[in-house]
Amino acid sequence: MYGGVEMLHVPSDHIWRPDIVLYNNADGNFEVTLATKATLHYNGLVEWEPPAIYKSSCEIDVEYFPFDEQTCVMKFGSWTYDGFQVDLRHFDEVEDSDLVPQGVDLSEFYMSVEWDILDVPAVRHEKFYTCCDEPYLDITFNITIRRKTLFYTVNLIIPCMGISFLTVLTFYLPSDSGEKVTLSISILISLHVFFLLVVEIIPPTSLVVPLLGKYLIFAMILVSISIMVTVMVLNVHWRSPQTHRMAPWARRIFIQVLPRLLVMRRPLQPRRRSDKCGAGVWPSLSAPGVGCTVLSARLRPVGLCAGGALLPPVGARLSGATCTPDVHRVREDWKYMAMVLDRLFLWVFLLAVVLGTATIILQAPSLYDDRTALDQRYSELRRHRR
């Protein structure tokens, strides 16, 4: 110490500075832009702490988006000096150890609204190249960050899951309802819109399909299958004995066995009049489900019977028409079979949606990572805001 002076502040251009650079630099600016002064101590210690903003490249893995964790590497080292000329070490490094568990000071860190910092170790590497006999040193910071999922859960995942579960309601509508197909197509269009939103959010990559993308593809496939099943159920509902004949095995499975397993009751049919008097009572020809086969028709007075007594003619009679109660019964069997199919696929699709959602969403490793974020633990700025 000379004249009581313990330190001096000198321009950094007046002293020797090691050419420490960020190897995986992303913007091409390897030099410190603001040349602040260095501090010279009387014992020979020289401190130079220039402020700088470094931009590095980081490979993003979107396989589990939005429940993803990323590990970014920042490698610092001398560009020209070898390990014999510049011994590069971390300030907090302990003896006989090249690992610093927390290599970054987070006391002045402003917390991110999108990422949590989980781990920031620093490792000193001593590497030999084939060209040279001298070692080259570097300090590598491995920064592990975890995405905050609240925004994506509220705005993407929950709506997608809700729309997917609407697929089950398609089979809760009546079997003869044409709106079943309309509902399924509307759900498919909604899922496609959400898929376009996901494409806009995630980084473009062809390496993997993100987790949310897998779920949307699964939901769209499920809805597409539900549309095909709905068309099949509508076809079964409107079948008649003139066009289709129900096989014995189909009658046994869908009329006798499955209703008991699905806890279903056949709808009660209105009591029909006795066939003894039914020859004179005819429903409208335009009504569906007519239980008669018309051979020829001409207008003539009709006699209605009530309690076995013949009444005076009051209307028109269809001559040559034969009443076939079996036709009506077969048509009701087809309608009941459509109801059974609807109930069966309701449970099948409900099980598929629940299992598919759980299988896809719960495979993200970050859901089981209960580590507390380091920025929440060490950030003094966060504690001051409280």
Automatic annotation (TrEMBL):
The keyword Transmembrane helix is annotated on this UniProt entry: yes
An example of a GO molecular function for this protein is: acetylcholine-gated monoatomic cation-selective channel activity
Boundaries of each Neurotransmitter-gated ion-channel ligand-binding domain copy? 2-149
Identify the InterPro entries for this entry.
Neur_chan_lig-bd (IPR006202), Neur_chan_lig-bd_sf (IPR036734), Neur_channel (IPR006201), Neuro-gated_channel_TM_sf (IPR036719), Neuro_actylchol_rec (IPR038050), Neurotrans-gated_channel_TM (IPR006029), Neurotransmitter_ion_chnl_CS (IPR018000), Nicotinic_acetylcholine_rcpt (IPR002394)
Which GO biological process annotations does it have? Answer: synaptic transmission, cholinergic
Q: Would you say which domain of life the source belongs to? A: Eukaryota
Per UniProt, residues of the Neurotransmitter-gated ion-channel transmembrane domain are: 156-274, 328-360
Cite the entry's keywords alphabetically.
Cell membrane, Disulfide bond, Glycoprotein, Ion channel, Ion transport, Ligand-gated ion channel, Membrane, Postsynaptic cell membrane, Receptor, Signal, Synapse, Transmembrane, Transmembrane helix, Transport
Query: What Gene Ontology cellular-component terms does the record carry?
Result: postsynaptic membrane
Q: Tell me how this protein sits in the membrane.
A: Multi-pass membrane protein
- Gene3D superfamilies hit by this protein: Neurotransmitter-gated ion-channel ligand-binding domain, Neurotransmitter-gated ion-channel transmembrane domain
Please give the CDD domains that the UniProt record associates with this protein: LGIC_TM_nAChR (cd19064)
State where the protein is found. Postsynaptic cell membrane
TM ranges are 150-173, 185-203, 215-234, 344-364
What does it do?
Answer: After binding acetylcholine, the AChR responds by an extensive change in conformation that affects all subunits and leads to opening of an ion-conducting channel across the plasma membrane.
Q: Which family does it belong to?
A: Belongs to the ligand-gated ion channel (TC 1.A.9) family. Acetylcholine receptor (TC 1.A.9.1) subfamily.
This chain's protein is named: Acetylcholine receptor subunit alpha-like
Origin organism is Amphibalanus amphitrite (Striped barnacle)
